[in-house]
Amino acid sequence: MKLPALTIGSFTARVPIIQGGMSIRVSTSALAVPVAECGGIGTIGGSGIPVAELQEDIRRAKKATKGIIAVNIMYAMKDFHELVMGSIEAGIDMIITGAGFSRDIFRIGKEHNTPIVSIVSSPDFAKLAEKFGAAAIVVESAEAGGHLGTDKPLREIFPAIRKVVSKVPLIAAGGITNGFEMAEVMDKYGADGIQIASRFVLSEECSVSQEFKETYLRANKEDIINVQSPVGMTGRAIRTAFIDRIERGEDVSPEKCKYKCLKKCSYKYCINDRLMASCTGDVDNGLVFCGANAYKMKEILPVKEIFRQFVQDAESVYKEGSENTVQS
């Protein structure tokens, strides 16, 4: 049965897939545009980069597609407000935000007619997000990549949040690697769509280094571990030589903070530097964030083919049709 569309605010994605917004410079317009062209929501990772660079990338994406382009901005960023306002000025369609909770963002979204999508990991924050005006809510579980807000798996946390959210679309995120799992969370758990990130790292269009992608391709289950981020949250990443150094207790802190990008930082290491190192090819000295099931993916595909496989597999088993779609 055909998958339902996903409506968030005034925007409707014909395929209910949001591409996760991975920072720093992992999810750029190069990836977001083909996702949008395939009918999903393409997301630019907006954290940890200068406002002007983000605006340029948003404008590049908006010029290249009539599809939906979002930006993901972590509330933990010191320049959160500037990144939000800069994104709106550049013409972004919607803003996705997590890693903390901002009440002001909903007022800003309303004033500028920009839908705000909240990433949450608990029923309490889901209720708050709906109350303050989120246009949609992403439930991010323990299987997700990058910074984690919970240790509860998707199939435990999603039903609890589904019970308290009824007015806006609820999107499942964390560990979803194929269309069969997509259909499961939509059919069995009532998700209105999914957000996936790691699968898109292994796309031809993702602009990270080949070394970054090879780290994904070589990863076994035991290579995917949790690390402590200077943000103050646990993060999930693939083991690298840099992580080995941390575990041996070596001093990996920077001599001087170059960015001062976070509201709170332990300064144990510079997450901006370490994410960018891997992104540009220096994996041994970098951090490679990934989802818990990244080890299951063993091929690099065009975005169009990733969509084709997800939709084909999901529709081969999907039962509920458009009944799950919640209009906002």
What does this structure look like?
This protein is an alpha/beta fold and 328 residues long. The chain has 2 domains: 6-206 and 297-324, Aldolase class I (TIM Barrel); 210-295, no CATH class. The protein is built from 12 helices and 14 strands. The strands form 3 sheets. Strands 3-11-10-8-7-6-5-4 form an 8-stranded parallel β-sheet. The protein is globular, with a radius of gyration of 18 Å. The two termini are 23 Å apart.
- Integer-rounded radius of gyration: 18 Å
SS-based class: alpha/beta
In helices, the fraction of residues equals 25-40%
Tell me the CATH architecture of the largest domain: Alpha-Beta Barrel
Q: Trace the largest sheet across and list its strands.
A: 3-11-10-8-7-6-5-4
Pfam families: NMO
Protein name: NAD(P)H-dependent flavin oxidoreductase YrpB, nitropropane dioxygenase family
InterPro entries: Aldolase_TIM (IPR013785), NMO (IPR004136)
Keywords: Dioxygenase, Flavoprotein, FMN, Oxidoreductase
List the main descriptive attributes of the protein structure presented here.
single chain, 328 residues, alpha/beta, TIM Barrel, eight-stranded parallel beta sheet, 14 strands, 18% strand, globular, disordered C terminus
Provide a quick synopsis of the model:
The chain has 328 residues and is an alpha/beta fold.
Helix-strand blueprint:
Elements: E1 6-8, E2 11-13, E3 17-19, H1 29-37, E4 41-45, H2 51-64, E5 68-74, H3 80-89, E6 94-98, H4 104-111, E7 116-120, H5 123-132, E8 136-140, E9 146-148, H6 154-162, E10 170-173, H7 179-187, E11 193-196, H8 198-201, H9 210-218, E12 224-228, E13 234-238, H10 241-247, H11 271-279, E14 288-289, H12 303-317
Parallel strand pairs: 3-11, 4-5, 5-6, 6-7, 7-8, 8-10, 10-11
Antiparallel strand pairs: 1-2, 9-13, 12-13, 13-14
Helix pairs in contact: 1-2, 2-3, 5-6, 7-12
